[in-house]
């Protein structure tokens, strides 16, 4: 089959597989109210469940990079194996667990295997699409966002069934995505052996002002994004408690708000080709930062319409810059250390999400909840300072 014909289905296959497999990411969050019933004394379960997936992802990414797994072995086979393993570990949440630490371990292992799905999916795309990678990353990150949101939609459709159906469904989706990559996406024409992980040299990228400003812009973005996603159902629940007549469908609107970010990723990727990645990323980060600062006004508005419009604005702006930061970082990274540099930035970014989630969880017990999410503006403000204060192309 010619490369032209292959390219017509390769990217859609990678995007769909990415979506199916990353549906595991927030599977635990979607059924949290049901899981909490098994562990009534665990007051920090939301923050800990989310943080363990993030911690597993960070650990997995570093180990995969250190051993150059996707360079030594076929990336498609790595994706397949990790998709299967992640699905199995995801099912661990359905076991009759009496110890919450076992539940957290299964979420950690799920996150660990996601390190062989999300970054490896981007590597597979780069092996096929040497030009226009920014646009391709827009679709891939969009798929991640849709995958993250999807468990909430499953919860909506399976509301009358046991909560385990959400876990069964997301595991089945991951198995399907893994098989699709194995059967339909062989090694790409531009695949080359990369440099092995070098802890000392991986910091060399930060000597470049363009790389440094893009990386710190990304860090600011990550401080806000996953915490917003994790606490979004709580925002909807709080609105319902204050306005019982509104009766907003929490799983459905959690899905719609998070999924809207998938659309903005794709649109942002296309707009960046005309207006530049830095400009679009800066605008998106500024809007999401403004949403953090205005959250006391709109989250406590008496109008459900204003409240939902605000959440959708936040959901759209919060993710639009994600693939753009990745393309800026890749463009400004040292040629021989691109993979290593991207790995480091990715790991730091996800480590920041753990800190942010735990900080908001801690402050929720100390601060008036009306002003709680203003703390998330710290990330966008510092990210904008880095972007506007340094040159990145």
Keywords:
393 residues, mainly alpha, 17 helices, disordered N terminus
Describe what you observe in this structure.
This protein is mostly helical and 393 residues long. The protein is built from 17 helices and no strands. The protein has helices at 3-22, 27-30, 32-36, 45-66, 69-72, 75-91, 100-114, 118-128, 133-157, 164-184, 209-242, 250-275, 277-298, 304-320, 322-332, 338-363, 378-389. The longest helix is centred in the middle third of the chain and has 34 residues, at 209-242. The chain is globular. Residues 1-5 have low confidence and may be disordered.
- Give the beta-strand count: 0
The rounded Rg comes to: 20 Å
Tell me the strand percentage band.
under 5%
**Class derived from helix and strand content:** mainly alpha
What is the H/E string?
Answer: HHHHHHHHHHHHHHHHH
Task: Provide mean pLDDT, rounded.
Answer: 87
Number of helices: 17
In a nutshell, what does this entry contain?
With 393 residues, this protein is mostly helical.
List the SSEs and their pairings.
Blueprint: H1 3-22, H2 27-30, H3 32-36, H4 45-66, H5 69-72, H6 75-91, H7 100-114, H8 118-128, H9 133-157, H10 164-184, H11 209-242, H12 250-275, H13 277-298, H14 304-320, H15 322-332, H16 338-363, H17 378-389
Helix pairs in contact: 1-8, 1-9, 1-10, 4-7, 4-16, 6-7, 6-8, 6-10, 8-9, 9-10, 9-12, 9-15, 11-12, 11-13, 11-14, 11-15, 11-16, 11-17, 12-13, 12-14, 13-14, 13-15, 13-17
């Amino acid at each position: 089959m010619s490369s032209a014909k292959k390219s017509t289905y390769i990217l859609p296959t990678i995007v769909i597989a990415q979506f199916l497999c990353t549906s595991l990411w927030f599977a635990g969050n979607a059924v949290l109210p049901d899981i909490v019933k098994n562990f009534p004394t665990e007051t920090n379960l939301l923050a800990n469940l989310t943080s363990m997936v993030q911690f597993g992802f960070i650990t997995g990414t570093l180990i995969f990079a250190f051993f150059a797994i996707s360079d030594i072995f076929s990336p498609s086979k790595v994706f397949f194996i990790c998709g299967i393993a992640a699905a199995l570990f995801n099912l661990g949440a359905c076991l009759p667990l009496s110890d919450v630490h076992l539940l957290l371990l299964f979420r950690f292992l799920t996150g660990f295997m996601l390190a062989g799905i999300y970054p490896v999916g981007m590597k597979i795309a780069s092996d096929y699409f040497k030009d226009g990678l920014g646009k391709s990353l827009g679709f891939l990150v969009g798929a991640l966002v849709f995958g993250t949101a999807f468990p909430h939609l499953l919860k909506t459709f399976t509301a009358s069934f046991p909560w385990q159906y959400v876990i069964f469904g997301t595991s089945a989706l991951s198995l399907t995505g893994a098989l699709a990559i194995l059967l339909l996406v062989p090694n790409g024409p531009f695949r080359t052996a990369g440099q092995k992980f070098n802890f000392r040299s991986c910091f060399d990228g930060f000597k470049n002002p363009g790389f440094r400003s893009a990386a710190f812009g990304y860090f600011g973005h990550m401080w806000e994004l996953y915490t917003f996603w994790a606490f979004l159902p709580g925002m909807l629940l709080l609105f319902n408690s204050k306005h019982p007549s509104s009766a907003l469908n929490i799983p459905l609107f959690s899905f719609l708000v998070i999924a809207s970010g998938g659309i903005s990723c794709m649109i942002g990727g296309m707009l960046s080709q005309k207006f530049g990645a830095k400009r679009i990323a800066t605008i998106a980060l500024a809007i999401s930062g403004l949403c953090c600062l205005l959250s006391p006004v709109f989250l406590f508005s008496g109008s459900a319409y204003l409240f939902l419009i605000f959440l959708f604005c936040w959901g759209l702006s919060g993710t639009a810059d994600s693939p753009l930061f990745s393309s800026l970082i890749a463009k400004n990274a040292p040629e021989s250390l691109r993979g290593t540099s991207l790995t480091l930035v990715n790991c730091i970014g996800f480590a920041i999400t753990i800190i942010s989630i735990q900080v908001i969880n801690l402050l929720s017990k100390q601060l008036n909840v009306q002003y709680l999410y203003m703390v998330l503006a710290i990330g966008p403000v510092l990210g904008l300072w880095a972007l506007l204060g340094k040159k990145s192309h």
